[in-house]
Amino acid sequence: GAxxxxxxxxxxxxxxxxxxxxxxxxxxxxxxxxxxxxxxxxRRADADSRRRQEAYKxxxxxxxxxxxxxxxxxxxxxxxxxxxxxxxxxAAGVAERDDDESPRANLTQAQRRDVERARDIAKxxxxxxxxxxxxESEEEKLRVAAVEQFRVQRGSGSGDMxxxxxxxxxxxxxxxxxxxxxxxxxxxxxxxxxxQRLAEKQQAAAALREDEAAMEERRIVVAAEDEWEKRDRxxxxxxxxxxxxxxxxxxxxxxxPHRDRETRCVTPAAAAxxxxxxxxxxxxxxxxxxxxxxxxxxxxxxxxx
Length: 305
What we know:
Strand content: 5-15%
Number of domains: 2
Number of strands: 4
Order of helices and strands: HHHHEEEHE
Oligomer: single chain
Number of helices: 5
Helix content: over 70%
Structural class: alpha+beta
């Protein structure tokens, strides 16, 4: 691995990247937990709504069963009264027949049959009318009893049919309004929850993009610094190799606008070496002076102007 300031910088960047990744993982975990809690709360709300709807349905079914039971009881009472009236009418007919036996004794058999048939037809018609009237009367009594029963059970303050129908319509309206309001509230809660989840996802995605951009920028900077260090090491190695060559006495001619000045760079170790003339500008002179200074035994540099 790298050592020195670059290695320390790389280690610091790695530690920062690991800490950032851990923090980001914790944040994602917290967001997931929050989503889980919201889903659980939504499921509980849906379950409560379903239980309330089931309770409303059971209440409506129970009320319908009570109504049918009341109708059955009233029908049984009606049938019993009708049977009692028919028995009374039959007994009255037998008594009347006994009273008319003396005149009927003077009739022929065919005439008696005609009289009996006419009497039976009249009796049948009368019984039909009586049954119809009794049915209407019992139906009216049934409605009145149902209204009274409803008033007793539900606390209605009125005993007439109009009030009962108005109370029933009001109850149905309230029930429908409550169901509509609960459905609207559930839909609003679902929409708000979806919008909140979408916003949180968008925020998490934006934070993730920012983190990735910061990490990419840091990676580029580290790569550039590594490249710079690598080039610097290569340059230093090249300079060292150039300095390891046999000492040479350099004489540099610096061209100025007036061409009236020259710079001479001499190394003590190369005092006996042949003179090499080299035309260069000021930057070349500085570089060659650095090479000459690096190649001396004691690091001394002699600059002469």
